[in-house]
Design goal:
- The structure holds 2 protein chains of 2 kinds.
- Chain A is mostly beta strands.
- Chain A has no helices and 11 strands.
- The radius of gyration of chain A is 14 Å and the shape is globular.
- Chain A starts with a strand and ends with a strand.
- The chains are: A mainly beta, B mainly beta.
Chain lengths: 117, 117
């Protein structure tokens, strides 16, 4: 399967614990995105990487959240001191990019569902 | 700021009938518009996009969408619905100003499509 891969698929953690999610994008894609989706809502943008550079962060991304893409390939999203409000589906996406909007569509992974108890 | 509205939380149609899922948007510059579909416990699958050119765009699984600049709409359509089309549909927009350097997608809340046999 050459699509976007996310691990783990499900994570249950106790409040206050740290969690880390991994995303492996489509191999030739230089752009990588993290979104968060809660029940009954559309995905909300969290952050965006072009290669290894983190170019934009949403105000939703509090200081407990950190994302990295150290070699411009896979990415990790860490949440420190988790809270119940962090329970959501965390989606990763990647895109190739190009001139004038070509290849601009993002392809999404299946997501990591986080439950904080 | 960019935004998307999907005015219908649910749409119900009979199999074989045409379907329409509505979407309106707001952006500062030229809109890049997308439709995604989400099946239960799955990530989002790309259906189609409008960047420029013909107002009627065709996508996967027989879906098409019509871009209407004056009405700022991008409604998703299919001439003959299938039971297997039942899923959650999301419209998304990004602002194409500056050659599309803003890569953040803004999603609507989603429309649950149910196709009845």
């Amino acid at each position: 399967d050459t699509g976007v891969s996310q691990n783990p698929r499900h994570k249950i953690t106790k409040r206050g614990q740290n969690v880390t999610f991994r995303c492996d994008p489509i191999s030739e894609h230089n752009r990588l995105y993290w979104y968060r989706q809660t029940l009954g809502q559309g995905p909300e943008f969290l952050t965006y990487f072009q290669n290894e550079a983190q170019l934009e962060k949403s105000r939703l991304l509090s200081d407990r959240f950190s994302a990295e893409r150290p070699k411009g390939s896979f990415s990790t999203l860490e949440i420190q001191r988790t809270e119940q409000g962090d329970s959501a589906m965390y989606l990763c996406a990647s895109s190739l990019g190009g001139q004038g909007g070509l290849n601009t569509e993002a392809f999404f992974g299946q997501g990591t569902r986080l439950t904080v108890v | 700021a960019q935004s998307v509205a999907q005015p219908e939380d649910q749409v119900n149609v009979a199999e074989g009938n045409p379907l329409t899922v509505k979407c309106t948007y707001s952006v500062s510059g030229n809109p890049y518009l997308f439709w995604y579909v989400q099946y239960p416990n799955r990530g989002l699958q790309f259906l189609l996009k409008y960047i420029t050119g013909d107002n009627l765009v065709k996508g996967s699984y027989g879906f098409e969408a019509e871009f209407n600049k004056s009405q700022t709409s991008f409604h998703l359509k299919k001439p003959s619905a299938l039971v297997s089309d039942s899923a959650l549909y999301f419209c998304a927009v990004r602002d194409g100003v500056g050659g599309g350097s803003n890569y953040k997608l803004t999603f609507g809340k989603g429309t649950l499509l149910t196709v009845n046999p």
